[in-house]
Amino acid sequence: QVQLLESGGGLVQAGESPRLSCAASGISFRFKFMGWYRQTPGKQRELVAGIDRGGDTNYADSVTGRFTISRDNAKNTVTLQMNSLKPEDTAVYYCTAKIFSAILWGQGTQVTVSS
What we know:
Layout: E1 3-7, E2 10-13, E3 19-25, E4 33-39, E5 46-52, E6 57-59, E7 67-72, E8 77-82, E9 91-99, E10 102-105, E11 109-114
Parallel strand pairs: 2-11
Antiparallel strand pairs: 1-3, 3-8, 4-5, 4-9, 5-6, 7-8, 9-10, 9-11
C-alpha cells in the first residue's frame, strides 16, 4: 500500500515560516517527480512547487523567492519550506508524486495564515 503522508501546516501568523513534509510509505522506489499543489474552495488546484529526480525545481510565480522545495531521493520524502507566509497562501496543500504511469496524492493538509 503506497501512501503519501503530509505533515505540518495548521494555523500560523503572517510572516512565519513553517515547513511541510511528505513521506511515502509502502515503497522504496525513487519517484520521478514530487511536488506540492494547493487548493482553496472554488478555485482550481495550483502547482506550488515541483522537483524531479535530478533536483530540477519549478515554482509558481506567487511563491518564487519565498518557498523552497527539496527532496531526499533515498527516502522518497519531499519538503516545502514556506517562508514569509501571507494570508493568500491559505489553502489545502497536497503532496503529489509520480511513479511509473501513476499519479499519487496525499490527503492534504490545511495551512491557514492569519493577519
